[in-house]
Write the structure tokens for this entry.
Amino acid sequence: MTDDHAYTPETLVVHAGVGRYPHRPVVPPIYQVSTFAFENADQGAALFAGREQGYIYSRMGNPTVAALESCIATLEGGYAALACGSGMAAIHTALAALLKSGDHIICGDTVYGPTCTLVEGFLPRWGIEATMVDPSDLEAVEKAFRPNTRVVYVETPGNPTLVIADLEAISRLAHQRGAIVVVDNTFMSPILQQPFKWGADVVVHSLTKALNGHADVVGGAIVAKDEADYRSFRKVLNHLGGVLPPLESFLVHRGIKTLALRMKQQSESALKVAEFLEEHPAIDWVRFPWLKSHPQHELARKQMSGGGPVISFELKGGLEAGRTMMNSVKLCSLAVSLGGVESLIQHPAGMTHATMGPEARCRARITDGLVRVSIGIENVDDIIADLDQALETASSRSTHRAQVGAG
Ligand code: LCS
């Protein structure tokens, strides 16, 4: 990109972050190097002191990684981004930079299982108090503030219940009390939701999901809104060391080029699948932000520009029927992760949210029978046919069991 024209996201995903390199390649080359030579000792010292800009050592910065970081910052509308070795590394680094012993964090109670464990299990060991709260209950969020509350952390839509946090209202509550808002935007990606527009202060991502999109990289990112935050995150990341290597950065940057196309297609297909599930006699309930039956459908329409790829549902036969269904899919893979090109199905209580324990799951309204599906870019009729045959198997087994039981 060579001018300051305000490009649309569909254009930015293709061009953002691509700089000028020797020989003018149209994508950033992979700088597969750990260290960069200095012109002389004085220049090395100047680079370390920050008097000169340039690369030193790949934990502290690398051109291929920087290209990806610039792309993500542009898409989110932030000041700068930092690529991390995983989504969890990004969350850990951001919280380590923002919190110190004696501080308090309010965290949405429906978050990825290990995020819950990090906040409730690890932070208290470092002298940081945590309160978990339903992020859709603004009164409860307001009541949770303490004089030492420094961060409000939300995932929206939440994994896996798809509860939605009102980012504008929560940012207002937090800012009135001197706290900042960190949003995990993994489920939506910057194509479907831009938390900074609603007042959020920091965005984190698991790049493993929609941004990379191809199930071949584990990565994460922190996006800072201003330079001071960026510098503080950079310092912590340099010292904690959870960086993303150049090859992975190249792959994620490549994946992002189709992000806008994928998110549009996946949101459309997911709505069709959600409508199919809602009509199916074997299904007890379905949650998808773009369904009118979602309790926060209006808020979803305001804050997001598509429903995203993830649907949660429960079968009438509960956990046992859900298990049979998951074991019966043929096109979808029975695997964790989400947001990528392939459709995946999984069981949060037994898999992604198992480490939270039953009490935290119950508080987060994650039922034992909840099944989560992430819709890929396959033909939607093929996806529906696969889920249909798996549901058929699950309901015929439940009927058979009921008949045997009665007999
Ligand atoms: N944030 C969200 C919303 C996530 O869903 C995940 C992973 C993470 C952060 C952590 O990212 P990672 O370190 O794995 O890159 N969620 C997963 C899931 O639902 N299934 O498998 C992983």
Summary: The chain has two domains: 9-30+61-256, 260-406. The chain has 15 helices and twelve strands. The two ends are 72 Å apart (CA to CA).
